[in-house]
Request: fold
Amino acid sequence: MYNLNMPYRLVSPRMLKEAVEQTGVAWAAFLLRQDVGLDIGASAGLEKPGMNRLVQLLKDKDFFNWLVTSIEKDKQRTRKISEPGVSCSELTVFPLYSLQAVLLVGSNGKLAPGVAQFWKFMVHTIEDLTGDSEERTRRLQEVVTELQETQQELQARISAQRDAEMRLVQAAKLAAVGEMSAGVAHELNNPLTTVVGFTELALDSLPVDSPLYADLDLVLREAKRARSVVRRLLDFSRQSESDRNRASLNELVEDVLALTKHLMHTNQVQPAVELENDLPWVVMDRNQIKQVILNLVQNGLYAMPRGGQLTVRTFGRARYERNWVVVQVTDTGVGIPPENLPKIFEPFFTTRSTQGGTGLGLSVTYGIVTDHGGMIEVESQLDQGATFTVWLPLEHEHVAA
Ligand SMILES: Nc1ncnc2c1ncn2[C@@H]1O[C@H](COP(=O)(O)OP(=O)(O)OP(=O)(O)O)[C@@H](O)[C@H]1O
Ligand SMILES: [Mg+2]
Reply:
């Protein structure tokens, strides 16, 4: 019957025994309310026959109600009893409301003085115990706070470590996704081309007012969308077959801006261009780097649904004892919440899934840039905009001292 649950522990057989002995009541029991019935949590002073009788009494509906009413009304109650087994002439019940329990005391003589003493004794003991446990809780709280501080310190170290590992993991992820997507994309490309082709044929032979026309048109649009995702995946996995030559970064920026001029205009975005003169040419895959700039410009445009300014800058800079050419794309858009910053280069991470974003733009960009021996960095303030900076190494030379 003795249980490790808190209410059971609160009143132990030993406590009851002490209370019975000190106050001279006949016996006492600690009863806890359960789903059905009352459970004997502890007892003292009852011999086996008395105990059996009590168990039986608890099954009696009237008796049970009498006890439970005491809990529900939070009220002490007394009644006479003439049961041979229970060796007492009176029963008193004391409610322990917050525990949903009672103390039942058997005594002889009308409200024997011991009964009141018994209750006092128990209240004191329970208060001491609860007081104690409050003290224990306080100390535990201190330990928990200390532990939390240690954990925070650990967390800070772990996150520093994680930052250092992130680049490696990113590269590994990209390789894995590249491999996987190549397989999937190849499998999907042919059937999608068939779906698109045959839907176009079917549409051609349908009158425009046919009820099927709109449905088939939707099939065609969705199939084309799927195909464009597949194409991007294919581009992604073809990164290694690059075709590199010396090229002018400024020229590529101008190409991309010419391509997106119309888009900027319709989005009420002001372009600002600051290209450094005489920027050295860099060995690169022109199409891939164009793709990089385009992805960044497109992201910037999407981040400014109500217009804004998009600045593209190029310049040369020395860093880490090397020379680099740098292209920087800055928007005045919604910005990136700090919690998203570590994720934006992950394949398939997008906050624009409902607007057709696949979350591949930046991971492709990252893959291309690192493939060129370069780096990409991002800075952003929420609601202020974002700046993406791409560093491309000017060959593998060192800066003259
Ligand atoms: N300039 C930016 N301003 C604000 N958020 C950005 C910016 N660039 C990227 N992001 C955030 O990073 C996420 C990932 O960008 P990414 O280019 O990889 O995918 P996408 O633009 O959502 O989809 P996709 O490029 O495949 O069409 C975006 O969904 C957006 O939440
Ligand atoms: Mg994008």
About this structure: Residues 245-393 form a domain with the Heat Shock Protein 90 fold (CATH 3.30.565.10). The two ends are 85 Å apart (CA to CA).
